[in-house]
Amino acid sequence: MTFQDILNGQDTIEPKNRLRLRLSDTAIEVLDNDRREYSRLLQLSAPRTDNSYSPIISEIVRKYHKRARSSIGRRLLETHAKLARVLQELPGDSRDAAIHKLIAQEKEELKRSLDKLLHSKSRSDGQSVLIRLRTSVINELRKTLADEQEEITKKQLGALIGSGEETYYPRKSKTRGTALENSNFNLYVTALVEEFSRLDDMTRENFWLEALTDSVLAGVPRDLDTARRTPACRPISFLPPDTAKRIAFFPFAILPDETTHYYYLVGCKEPAGGQVCPKAFRLSRIRSVEVESGQPGRAWKESDKAAFEKRIREKGVAFLSDEATAIRVRFTKKGKERYDRIRHMRPAGKADPDNEQIYSFHCTTFQAKNYFLRLGGDVEILSPASLRQKMQQFFQEGAAVYADPPPET
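The structure assignment produced for this chain is given below.
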């Protein structure tokens, strides 16, 4: 089956919209992570199948195929339009010659990047998955291909770009099973999923959450500099994780955590006594966000903004909602060196004036536990007793696993 078959709507040769993809371990890990993190955002109308990859791959193909570099024809058309604008002052013949030369170079680069994606799927450590794309996704691809073919024909670029995606996804020599299997359509979907899996965590989170951030949260600043200049905000309400009670909230900004893996909605509830209490909620865990249309907005005072910035600097976005407490630790010499070196999610502390190996921290126990666990025996929690007990229990349970020789394998 070729892309032209899809374009022509030959439904008789795709009875179950079935595809068998050979995906790399990287792609499988990303699919497993994203369907766990963003399962509530996946459309439930995906075809029934024996595995659960169909819904997430259907969504990736539906939402990503127009922007993916896997769609070589589309990328070259975009390049042509961009070059035509940039080179518009050149004479006609010279402009066309320059455009053809530059697009030919871009075409080779895209084909090389595609070749890497396709070959990554053939590694022995990959995994074969059977999926069924939604009929609506197939129909949307047909429309995209029709538009692409029309644009190629209209601009007389067929000799330069090709006749569409089928030019870059040749049919395999052997065809087994249904016609959708082992076809260039199969290769296209494989390349698209492989490309998506190589996006960084925050780009993928933006991808899954763009419907939310482009609508209800469209006006919320995405960095502190913009938040400082924003004089007011409109209230929203949402369902936080693991509760059925809605929260009325005044957004301040949408900010990444220090790991640059996730975004958080930072803001406050209705201030008590005029004092703001900054809170942060993981954006991907928020459910059912709505604008509180009948509620008045809130004008941010400079003192409000200063309070947000101070808490964010002290605690970090990920720990903003947790209560801070006094924590004392004792470092070994090596532990102090590792503390100075490992900055990721590090709490700010102050050395004891009488003992430079003892430090005092004012942070959440959650942050302290997660940070100091990586230092192992090079740090000792002195107080509070509850955190010391948790650390002790963690290491005792870990040591118990290695108390005996490993079983014969």
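Interim note for the steering committee: DSSP finds 14 helices and 13 strands in the chain. The longest strand covers residues 247-256.
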